[in-house]
Structure formats: C-alpha cells, structure tokens
Write a structure and sequence with these properties.
By secondary structure, this protein is α/β, with parallel strands linked by helices. Strand 8 and strand 9 form a beta hairpin. The protein is elongated, with a radius of gyration of 25 Å. The structure holds uridine-5'-diphosphate and magnesium ion (MG). The site of magnesium ion (MG) has 5 residues, from loops.
Length: about 325
C-alpha cells in the first residue's frame, strides 16, 4: 500500500488539532491506508503548536511544522507539500469542513491511476450572503480568466507524487494552489463533497481579507486585468473620435458648443480610466517586485516527528529555498 500524506494547514486551530487527528486515525486507519499527517502551524497566536506537539507524543503519524510567523494558507500548503514524504499527498482544512471520508474515495481513485483528484463542492455550506456573493464574483472571474472551472473548486485535493513534484518545481512565490493543481495537468478526475460545519474556532476570512486574496490570486494567476487597460484605452479613444467629429461638425455649422459639461465629463472619464489603468499596472509591478526579491515562501522555526517525539529546533534558519 502506498503511503498517503495528508497536509493540514492550521492557523489558530487549537481546538481542532486533537479531534482532526483522531477522526483521521479512525477513518484512514479503518480503511487500512498507511498515512502521515503533515500539520503545518502557520504561525498561530493560540496554542496550536503546543497541541501539535502534544498529539505527536502519542500519535506516530504526526509530522508537525512550525512557521516563524503567519505566512498565509498558500505558504502553509506549499510547505506541507514540500515536507510530505508520501507517494500520494492530500491537502485538506484542519477544521474538518472537508469530509475525511472523501479521502478514502480519493485514495481509491488514485489507486485506479488518477494523478490529480480534485474535491468539488456540491454545496457551499453555511456562508454569509455577502461572502457567498463575493466568492461567486471572484470565481466567475477566475473561471473566465483561466479557462478552468473555479466556481466549485476547493483546496481539498489529492495528488500523486509526480503531480506534487510538478507543483513544487514551479518557481513563482505567489502560488494559487487551487488553480495550479489543475494547471499542471495529468490524468485528473474529481469527487464532489459537501462542505461541513466548522468543528471549532472561527473562519479566518473577513470580507476584506477575501478581497485581498482575490486580487492577489487573480494577479498571480492571470494577466487578464492588463487587457482591461488596453480595452479601456481603446474605448476612450473611440469616444474621443466621436466627440471630435461632433465638436468639429458643431463648429463648422456655426453652433458654438457650450461644451462645459461635456468637457468635464470627458476629463473625469479619461482621468479615472488612466488612474485605474495605472493602478492595475502598479499592482502587477508590485507583484513582479515581490517575485524578483525572491524571498522564501515561508520560514520554519521548528518541526516535530511523531515517531521520535522530539523537536528539531531549526533556529529559524530553514526556509523553502533549501528544499
Ligand atoms: N489557514 C492557514 N493560514 C491562514 C488562514 C487559514 O493555514 O492564514 C488554514 C486554517 O487553519 C484552515 C484552512 O486554512 O485549516 C481554511 O481556513 P478557514 O477554515 O478559516 O477558511 P474557510 O473554511 O472559512 O474558507
Ligand atoms: Mg474552514
């Protein structure tokens, strides 16, 4: 049987760690699947890391990774993928919103020869109306911009070692895991799952952080907004041609234009188009800047291996460049 690594990013999840380990033990152990749990503590402010240390004392399946600060979920997922030793690797939330039974189903599909098994939401669970609306707009845009159906996509997936290595080999710092996993290709299938209620703690997403996440991922995955700048420019040009003709006609027919209003509108319109365009370009430049800085995606301060129950203090020096 091939070893399954389950990557679990955790940020302020102290109340979920023990339960998640227990549930996964029951389900994966029950199905006879050899597994390890790569729990990545994304610089939590609560006792998440203490809880990981605690479970690692009794549970030999646990491999804990502790970030030096909060680097965000994408970085935590990436670190988990880099640290996982399994032949097949799954990524799931550690609040049990992704039903663990689905892992067994995914594992069977992997055994049938699929390299990438995507978890697809059959129902978005209980999200607030505004959250749902924002998510719909964001995923609609992503679907159009990437040509990959993102509407019901999730971070819940299972990938073969080959596919994971392909993801790990991508050089970009800002990775949008959800889309990257399908971008790498390979024999892909999907399983649908129902988003469960969060077991404990609260969601880490405010509407503001979702908007930021959306912008970030759009920019790191597609240059489509740049095309808006070009299209906007062309639309402006078209308007100006029409207005020029109109003004000239008015002038030569002797109807002096009392064009103050028109003038203001045109000025404001073009001015705002220019500023929006500059903003979009500026955002891309800032992302390019971040990429060329070539900072590590994350910094690990310590790790723990369940079977040994010992902690390796890494003196904050290990980072993703050493993978
Ligand atoms: N998470 C993380 N780093 C962060 C924010 C979230 O590792 O900065 C983890 C979190 O612990 C959880 C998963 O990402 O395991 C999904 O987060 P959450 O449940 O808050 O999102 P939601 O399910 O509400 O979309
Ligand atoms: Mg959640």
């Amino acid at each position: 049987m091939q070893l399954l690594s389950v990557v679990l990013p955790a940020y302020n999840e102290e109340d979920n760690i023990e339960r998640t380990c227990k549930v996964l033990h029951e389900i994966l152990g029950g199905a006879g699947i050899p597994y390890e749990l790569v729990m990545v503590d994304d610089g939590s402010r609560d006792r998440t890391w203490e809880m990981i240390l605690k479970v690692s004392e009794t549970d030999s399946h646990v491999y804990g990774v502790h970030f030096s600060r909060n680097f965000g979920k994408e970085a935590a997922v990436y670190a988990g993928l880099a640290k996982a030793t399994g032949d097949v690797i799954a990524v799931m939330d550690c609040d049990l919103q992704h039903p663990p039974e689905t892992l067994v189903e995914m594992y069977r599909l992997y055994q049938e020869g699929y390299e990438v098994i995507e978890g697809v939401k059959s129902d978005r669970g209980s999200e607030s109306a505004i959250h749902r609306k924002m998510a719909t707009i964001f995923y609609d845009f992503m679907t159009k911009a990437t040509g990959v159906d993102m509407q019901n996509a999730s971070d819940f997936k299972m990938m073969s070692r080959k596919a994971v290595n392909a993801v790990l080999s991508l050089p970009e710092r800002n990775m949008f895991f959800r889309a990257t996993s399908s971008w790498v290709g390979y024999k892909t299938t999907s399983v649908s799952f129902e988003v469960q209620e969060r077991q404990a703690g609260e969601s880490k997403w405010s509407t503001a952080s979702l908007v930021k996440y959306a912008f970030n991922n759009i920019v790191s995955f597609t240059t489509a907004p740049m095309q808006f700048v070009t299209i906007g420019g062309m639309v402006c040009f078209l308007f100006s041609v029409i207005l020029t003709i109109y003004s000239l006609v008015m002038k030569f027919t002797g109807n002096a234009v009392d064009g103050y209003t028109t003038l203001i509108i045109v000025l404001l319109f073009i001015g705002s188009m220019v500023m929006v365009s500059l903003g979009i370009i500026g955002y891309y430049i800032s992302k390019i800047y971040e990429e060329v800085q070539h900072r590590p995606r994350y910094i690990i301060s310590s790790t723990v291996r369940g079977e040994r129950g010992i902690t390796d203090e890494l003196n904050g020096s290990e980072n993703s460049d050493k993978e």
